[in-house]
Amino acid sequence: MSDFVVEAKGVTRTFMTGDVKVRALRGVDMAVERGDFVAVAGPSGSGKTTLFNLLGGLDDPTDGEVFVNGEPLAGMNPRRRSRLRLDKIGFVFQAYNLIPVLTAYENVEYPLILKKVPAAQRLKRVQELLDAVGLGGMLKRRPNQMSGGQQQRVAIARALVCDPVMVLADEPTANVDSETGEALLDLMRKLNAEKNLTFLFSTHDPMVMAAARRLIRLKDGLIDTDVRQNGEGVDASVPAGA
Amino acid sequence: MLLKMAWRNLWRNRRRTLLTISAIGLGLAILIAMVSFMQGMMEMMVEQIARSSMGHIQIHNPEYLHKKSVKLTMSGGSQLVKVVEDVPGVAYVSPRLLFTGSIRSSRSSSIQVVRVIAVDPQREKRLSGLADKVVEGGFVTEPPGADDPETPARLRGRKGILLGVKLAKRLKVDLGSKVRLDTAGFRGSTSAAAFYVTGILKVGSDAMDNGMVMVSLKDMQKVTGAGDRLHELTVIVNDVGAIKEMVGRIKAAIDKAGGPAAFGPVDVLPWWKISPGIKQMLDMSDAWNGILYMLMLAILSAGVLTTMFMVVYERTREFGVRLALGTRPGSLFVGVMAEALFMALLASALGLLCGGLIVAYLVNIGIDMSSLVGGWEFAGIFFENVYKGSYAPEVFVEPTLVVFIGTVLLSLWPSMRVARMKAIDAIREGGVTG
Questions:
Q1: Which residues partner with A72 through β-bridges?
Q2: Which of A183, A241, B72, B321 falls between 20 and 30 A from B141, CA-CA?
Q3: Which of B315, B318, B422, B427 should one mutate to test binding to chain A, selecting the residue with the greatest count of A CBs within 10 A?
Q4: Which domain holds residue B373?
Q5: How far apart are CA B179 and CA B159, in angstroms?
Q6: Are A64 and A11 in contact (CB under 8 A)?
Q7: Boundary of a domain, candidates B232, B256, B274
Q8: In this predicted model, what pLDDT tens digit does every residue of A18-76 receive, in sequence order?
Q9: A 60-99 residues with CB < 8 A to B
Q10: How far apart are CA A227 and CA A217, in angstroms?
């Protein structure tokens, strides 16, 4: 098995906006090791979301290749790719994106139902995760009955429920206040440390960037800098593809 | 989980869902009421056709209907009646002799041309509703055993005649008055006899109130020398839906009993062959029902497509997220279809409830316009202006199926649109960018 949970090799992505060709990514090489805690930063339009979509198997590169857990995404049929997302990748979105008609419990349970996990196992797993994110007492609340921070905690629990190899979090602290953002970050750091779970964030938030062990800065569709940190400052630059 | 989500999603926009369900449900209720009304009108017309002189089926000499000649009869009348009466599914049979004649009274100088219908009173009473229209005296009597309690005692044992209220007025006759009836005869060129008015009827139709008299078959067979001959045998069957089949059965029974050798040439015809104009009018009612269904589908299309496409547009991001989480497109399709199914079920239930109440009113009370405009006549048949609905199962089943299946089928379009979504496009359209 590959040591990298996700790899991008020479990835480019071009969009047509009307008659104008927009090159969102211009040849990105990167690889993320198991258990890493990586922040991808850059200004709007730098290609963060495009890169996350490609790493999460939601989109296909115009050129280059993406591997998840060593498996190439190119040529994978939609059903297989859907299954791979369910089994290997946890998504946390900027706007929480919980299913509004489901309770906190049901939102976290949802991916397990898609995996056809038996009810008794689901109950145990969901309860455990909601306890872990500090929402054990809010099982029956619907998203509109929870704060932004609480919703994002539910989203994190949902991302973790299928034991993914990595969690892709698209600006997870963007819509919450700094105190809640810090609490969410602590939660993810704790899960990373305890479960050796790989986290990749896209972020504008200096607090998240500082907390990451690896900080990748994108600029105009290319990796501008890729450095390791210890939470205090820069340790070393990381060679492309490592 | 899919069904639970579909049910909850249905109530996310409670007002819109209620409005859509109400629009579809009330549309269905109106459709049910209209179909019930049309069906009731058709049933009423068929019933009135049957209860007029026409019946469901008629048996004649094959040439009689075209030539209307008195000589074109069927022989062995009493045996023919028995043969037809014994056919399973036949409810009533009425044998008739029919003449065009003239009638006059000593009280008036006017001579009126009338249609003379000679009937077996007991059989005719069971078959036609004319006995209920008698306003004075009783129905046609058959001497010497005339036992109609409505007939004045002094008239019993005499040849009675039943005539319309307008004709009675014109002839200046009332109960017990003597009239002279001249018709074509079988022995000579004409036959004439005196009759006594034993009953006066009021139908509401000019043709019947002014131009028809009814006498006893036995009397006329004697007076005209017709013997056991008949012009017409009118049949009512138990099952209106089986008239075609009954025509075949009756033909077979007549053939078995001797056919032309016993009765002369006979033709057995359903009522719509005798009066195709009425049949065409009833067929037009079917076309009208078709238009109603099309209108209903137009209401449905507007309601269902607007609602379901709003659902799709409002939840595009959510569908994208669910796809990103690993939901299969087929599950999204099933989810949206389940919502449509719930909507269809609720709308159908509402429509059936409201439609049922309207139909109950139409069936039990109906719309009575007879006091305003009286009755109406078409193709020689008099129809009353009282309209009642029908409780027939198809009144409820067909419109409900059209609405239910229509709702579900119309929802296929937005559902397929959801199933074809790509996660990335749906999330992007929903506004998640960076």
A1: A67
A2: B72
A3: B427
A4: 2-49+278-429
A5: 10
A6: yes
A7: B274
A8: 888 888 999 999 999 999 999 999 988 888 889 999 999 988 999 999 999 888 998 88
A9: 78-79, 82-83, 85-87, 91, 93-95, 97, 99
A10: 9
